[in-house]
Amino acid sequence: MDASSTSQTSRSPNLPGSDVSVEVRGAIAIVRLQRPHKRNALSDGLMAQVDAAFAGLPTTVGAAVLTGDGEHFCAGLDLSELKERDAVDGLHHSRSWHRILTNIEFGRIPVVAALHGAVVGGGLELATSCHIRVADDTSFFALPEGSRGIFVGGGGSVRIPKLIGAHRMLDMMLTGRVYKAAEGVALGFAQYHVAAGEALAKAIAIAERIASNAPMTNYSLIHALPRIAEQPADHGFLTEGLISAIAQSAPEAKARVRDFLEGRGAKVKAS
Is 125 a catalytic residue? Predict the structure, then answer.
């Protein structure tokens, strides 16, 4: 039975309104931003719903896809909510975004972003909190905060330079430079580049593949690998050894290794 035949769409009771929907398809979930009339701009309410959506995913879900309805993934912060904030409110608002996006990056399961149209400002910050990003040919990447007299506030100054370097992020913010899909993928904004309209299908296929891995391996990868990469080499080697020992001791890992040794496991093949 294929995943689509067992698909069920559900809304968490914690999600007021309809700015975010959650669809469970077998072992994966699809989380959708649903403000297409606002190019999926990130309001406070939408961000709270994103947080609740990921926190409320069933334990049977092994990977998630994040996408946006309409012609754009996300055009960034809803600026209509910005004008009334003072400095203290702005600080707490930024810190709330940090918490929500960190919960995606260091959550229970890997998240694949399906990108199309605008991936701009806060939308780019949201995308970079996901582990794998698929950009279709309509995607474009920008950080217009500099021209609007503001600064990134959702973790972009931490995550984006790790992908493209601080010098390129500086260029984007100072000059308003926009990268089209192919350029963005080459720089590291996304790992996959597909034809227009194909990002969601590709992201779903990737998520299904990820969900077939051992859960402990997936958890170890999204939590340990980014931290190891920032550790001194001797610390990283020790962390790697500890995580490797824990992962291979899991019963599912032992069963998979046994299947491989006895000829039942999948072989590595060039695609």
Answer: yes
